[in-house]
């Protein structure tokens, strides 16, 4: 019980609260660079994902309740403004928003084509190129035979050319089918959450999808984005920064 009370006092007043006044060090002021402005203004990203696979670890700056209470009192009761605190919070959030957006972009690209699909595309493209080369050379040869009045040879080569053209048409149709269906096998099964970047299965039950939407990581990014866009719009209208 005593230990719990000690931890509560430390959380509210700082680790030095229980040290004798004669030797106690003073906590920094709320405006100190050592104090986390994200914690004061909103929610520090380090506090959003505690205990999850996205855990960012402990924030390197101070999180003292007395500073947060002072900030709320001065802004709400006394009407003071600390735009520099908000801007620091905004830039802090921007770091993590940019990072998760890059991860989402990478995840979406991974779903575009599997290695097997890329191999199919490369193979059929190469086959088409080879056929086009053969058709081009054969067409030139037929033109030469026509000029040389080699009617019989021209007829034989024309038959071969016709067969090559049919083969190309069939291969082109196959290529179109591949192009239309690439990614379908993976995309039918997976999608990327636009908020937190998690892979979601389209085949999951509504319950599993609902569990994701109320999960700590997903809600953490939702909260982070909401705060970020609110501040983004605010600073977009302002010329202070």
Automatic annotation (TrEMBL):
**UniProt-recorded Gene Ontology molecular function terms:** mRNA binding
Coiled coil regions, renumbered to chain:
121-181
* InterPro entries named in the record: Luc7-rel
Superkingdom of the source? Eukaryota
One of the GO BP terms on file: mRNA splice site recognition
Q: Which UniProt keywords apply?
A: Coiled coil
The protein's name is DEHA2F06270p
Species source reads Debaryomyces hansenii (strain ATCC 36239 / CBS 767 / BCRC 21394 / JCM 1990 / NBRC 0083 / IGC 2968)
For this protein's source organism, the top of the classification is: Eukaryota, Fungi, Dikarya, Ascomycota, Saccharomycotina
């Amino acid at each position: 019980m005593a230990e719990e009370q000690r931890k509560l006092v430390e959380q509210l007043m700082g680790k030095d609260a229980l040290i004798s006044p004669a030797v106690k060090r003073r906590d920094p002021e709320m405006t100190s660079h050592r104090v986390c402005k994200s914690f004061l203004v909103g929610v520090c990203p380090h506090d959003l994902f505690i205990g999850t696979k996205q855990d960012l670890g402990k924030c390197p700056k101070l999180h003292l309740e007395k500073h947060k209470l002072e900030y709320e009192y001065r802004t709400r009761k006394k009407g003071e403004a600390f735009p520099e605190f908000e801007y620091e919070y905004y830039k802090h959030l921007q770091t993590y928003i940019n990072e998760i957006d890059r991860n989402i972009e990478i995840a979406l690209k991974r779903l575009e084509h599997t290695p097997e699909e890329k191999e199919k595309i490369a193979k059929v493209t190469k086959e088409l190129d080879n056929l086009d080369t053969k058709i081009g050379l054969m067409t030139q040869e037929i033109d030469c035979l026509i000029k040389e009045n080699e009617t019989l040879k021209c007829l034989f080569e024309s038959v071969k050319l016709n067969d090559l053209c049919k083969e190309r048409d069939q291969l082109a149709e196959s290529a179109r089918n591949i192009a239309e269906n690439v990614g379908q096998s993976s995309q039918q099964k997976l999608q990327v959450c636009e908020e937190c970047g998690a892979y979601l299965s389209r085949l999951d039950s509504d319950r599993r999808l609902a569990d994701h939407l109320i999960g700590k990581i997903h809600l953490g990014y939702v909260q982070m984005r909401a705060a970020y866009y609110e501040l983004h719009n605010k600073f977009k209208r302002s010329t202070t920064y």
